[in-house]
Each structure stands twice: as C-alpha cells, then as structure tokens.
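ingest -> fold -> write
write: protein_1
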Amino acid sequence: MPVNVAIYIFDDVEALDFSGPYEVFTSASRIHDSEDSLFNVFTVAESLNLVRSRAGMKVMPEFSLSEHPDIDCLIIPGGVVSNEICKEHVIHWIYEQSKRVMITGSVCTGAFLLAQAGILDDKSATTHWEDISYLRSMFPQVSVKEGVRWVDEGNVVSSAGISAGIDMSLHLVERLHGKQLAERTAKQLEFDWTKNI
C-alpha cells in the first residue's frame, strides 16, 4: 500500500513550499524499482475553489477538507499564513489529522499553523529564518531552533524556509524507504541535498 501524502494548499501559499515536497515524493515513487507506487501524493484545500499562490500561480485542489482520502503523511506549507492561522476549522482539521497520521510536517511558516493547533507544544521546531523571532514570541511553548534545515520530532517534522522543504521531504523518504532511495531521488532532481548535522 502506498503512503498517502496530503499537501494542504491555501491562498498566498509559497509555491515551492508545496511543489518541492510534491516533486520529491512523486519522483521517489517514479524511480523506485517496483511496479507498486510508494507514495500517493495529492493536494487538499479548504474547498475545491481555485487557490492562488503568493506569486500568483493558480492551483486547482484535488480534495477539500470535508472530503479526501485517508492521510498517512500531512505536509503544511508556508507562505502568508495570517489568514489561515485565524481559521478555527482549518486549525481544527490540522489538529485532528495530526492525531491520525504517521507524520505531520511543515515547511517554512507552515510551522505557525502547527503551533496554533498545539501540535508543537513542548517540541522543537524551525521555520524560515525571517520568522524565527515571531514563532518564538507567539508560541513560547515551542523550542524554536535556527540554523538547521529541518527538525525531526518523530511524528512531527518541521523545516526552515522554502527550499528546505525539499531537504525535509528527502529526509522523510529516507525515513520511510531508506537512504539509497532518498539519495537517488535527490540525484534525479539534481538537488544538492543538505542533511542536518
């Protein structure tokens, strides 16, 4: 059975925050030496309405919060999250999913949505370097790390800004299916995978 990877998208999402992980997981499936797909990757949004990214790219979500497949790995990208963080039903959905999934991950300012949902309470996390101080001041219960590409807390993984989501996703491929596949995926993407020390 493939791992169902859901990527939540919303208006003003950072395009690379969601498309980077999307490419990592779909590429890992494509280059895997098997007819069976390793990852089933799809987008979920508040509704099925068109989503406009921060840079203006338009994206049609595949599923809505109210109707989507079961999720094994949930990725929350960043961008301008000031509207999303105030949507109680979105934060509740993220929280409820986090109790069911194997892994909840955030990219960039997506960490603010995880923190708002209480998922990062008493855990370490990271975000974009510009937003480190804001995450610390808004959520003092989170141990915010800087100078790292991602932070792995087991069932919760967060990454720094934008392209760091690709590093984190490769790390998740390694966790779920081994180092060799993660390295082959990075090579296929021609991406210089930065691993945490």
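write: protein_2
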Amino acid sequence: MSGDVVVVGGGVAGMTVAYELALHGASVTVLERGEDVGGECSSGNAGMVASTHAMPLASPGALREGLRYMLRADSPFYLRPRPGMVPWLLRYGMASTPARARAAGRLLLDLTQAGLEAHRQMQADGLETGLQTRGHLDAYESQAGMDSGRAEIQHRHARGLPGELLSPDELLKFEPSLSKTLAGGAFYEDQAWCDPLVFIRAIAAAATGLGVTIKKRVEVLGLERKADRIVAARTTAGRITGDTFVIAAGVWCRPLARSAGLYLPVEGGKGYHVELPESAAPLRVPVYMADSRVVATPLPGRLRLSGTFELDGLDDRVDPIRVRAITAAGVRVLPGLSGMEAVGVWRGLRPCAPDGLPLVGAIPWTQNLLVDTGHGIGGITTAPVTARLISEVIRGVPTSLPMDLMRPDRFKSLATWARRDKAMAGEAVVG
C-alpha cells in the first residue's frame, strides 16, 4: 500500500484502523488529542467481547422500553430532554421498525461474531491483549428475564451458536457469589472478555512496531479540502498533510465530518463504571445482569460494574444517581458487594447513530476520506472488524462484509447538502 494515511482518533476504532493498515504496508500517523491512546470511552467499558444480545439500539422493543425509561434518572436508559436531541430521536423512531431492526440485527450478529474471531486471531498472532475466553453468564432476576434469555438462546441455536439456559441451582453451582434469589441464568461458552485498556495499549504497541506514528496531545480542528480531496488536517500542532484521511474520533467525529460536508448524527451515549475490590465477589466469568442492563467484569485486582445509557450530548459530568443505580444493581445480584467502598468511578461517551449501526466507509463526494465511528456499546468487539473493512476499502479489494447499511452518508440534512454543493463547486471547506 502506498501513500500516507492520517487517522484522526487514538481510541479503539482509530488504533485498530492504524494497526490493520500498517499490516498491509501503509505509512500511518494517528492524531490523538488526549494524553494517551484509549483515554476516553475506549478504556472504561465492560470489556465484553461478545455476540450475545447483538440487537440494534433502534427496534420496536427498544423503542417501547426507551419510552418507559427515558425520564427516569435511575433507569438503564435515560434521556436528558433538550431541543438538540429532536432530530436524532426522530431518526431513531424511523429506524425502529420491525424490518429495519431485523436487517440491523443480522448485520450486528455478523459483525460481533467476526469480532470474536478477530480478537482470537490477534491473540494467536502473539498480541498481549489479555483476552479471556471462558465464556459469559447472564443472570435473571425475574421470569421476564428468563423468557428473554430463552428467546436469545433459541435465536442463537438457529444460527448454530451455543447457549445454555440454567436453573437457579445450576447458576449458583457455576458462580457461588451470585444471589440465591435469582430466577435463573444462561451460559455462553464461546464468549470472551478483556481489560479494554490493556487491549488498546497492546494494539498501539503492535502498530508502533509496524511503523505507525502516534502523535498525542494533538487536536484536529478541521479538515482542509481542495476540489474533491482532503489535503490536510488543521490541528493544534499545525497543518498535517496526507494522502488518505480516516475520521475515527468517536463522538468528536461530528464536527470534523461537518468540515468535510458530511452530516453524522452521532450522539454521546454516556456509560459509567464503578470498580470495587475483586475479593468482594470473586467471579470466574463476566455476568450480565439482564434486568438492570449492568455487567460485572472480573479484571486484575478489581471487579468492574458497567452500565447505563444516558443520552446527554457531550456532557461528561458524573451523575451520582446513575452511579448509585449501577451499584445497587450489583448488590442485588452479587450480595457480597454490599457495604463495599468503590475504588474507582468512571464515565465515557460512546458514539451512537440513531439506527444503532456503525458509520463506516468512504464518502462518495470525497476521494480520500473515510469514517469509522458509531460503534455504540460494542466498540471493543466490532472495532477490529470495521478496521478491516476500512483497510479493504482503501486497498480497493472486495470487503469481507456488506457495508451498505453502515454507509456514513446514509443520514442527510439540508445544511449538509448545501455545504457539499458549495464544496463541490470548488471552494475549500475549513473547520
């Protein structure tokens, strides 16, 4: 591969793109605005490398549940009302039809299954990503949860994928730290997990070993365009030129894309984690608390409780109500956590498109600009796959998965059309 590639963003999306391109001989520079790679939402997630519950954010069931929860500050899903959310919510509603949800669900299952395989391949290639492959548990507090688990397992069996429903006694035998009041659970033996920060640092080290340059504390202010090409990124460290540009900056992609005439309706889905001493409730595998949408992940020296989905724009404040809700869910399912002091609290903004699918691919009216964002809550699983797709597009080879549903230009706005027409008329667009 010839030519210099500039990747904007040093999170899991940007670093896996850089690594994948470098594997094929590209000269890559990564621009990361933070102190280190993976410093934002890539580092603090649950670390689940999973194809279970691969359902789109937008679906009839999710829409009904979201309407029920959206104004409850302690619910798994919370929306802080504001006028700027209206266009995103309208698109979310339009995407929540049965037909669109089925198509999105099929694609997400393909993406997540490919993600599991990609993680295992990286481990086989010698990358020290800390991948653990002992499976996942679901824990159900209610009969409704059990019914949902049964449907999930039937769906997986139809695809030839493993899954086993567990009685309360079988669940406790597998994981004695769990509450004796649970209605039951499920075990998915083919699932995996990792410490996400260990993963991204391993990818960064491997990419650096392949010649990738990572420039930290460099914020991209906009993209400079001439005719139908991006010629430079305008940054806090000056003008950086390249032959190909990839926007992979999570929730910060939206203003950068706007500077290239592209409308990306990406909202920040704020998630939280609370970390407690590992000894409080030792777990063999991660546990997904289906009724509360909280995950307990065993990590070296601590137990991470992750959850909530809060649509609040780019506001990164910590809401104590959300923290308490996650902790309370953990205590219900893992009684040993009761009274334990948190050793860490974190929040991060996950980039979410209205239809729940990633925004991945090239921009038709710009020859050398690609986008890789919108992974939502599944970035640790799917980023290696979308990175491979980006590499395939840049190299001009057939893509390993269909990309039509992930096109980054699938959402339109009148302002974007006007800006694009102006740009195509020959004027430079500078953010």
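write: annotation protein_2
The two ends are 29 Å apart (CA to CA).
Confidence is low (pLDDT under 50) at residues 423-431.
pipeline exit 0
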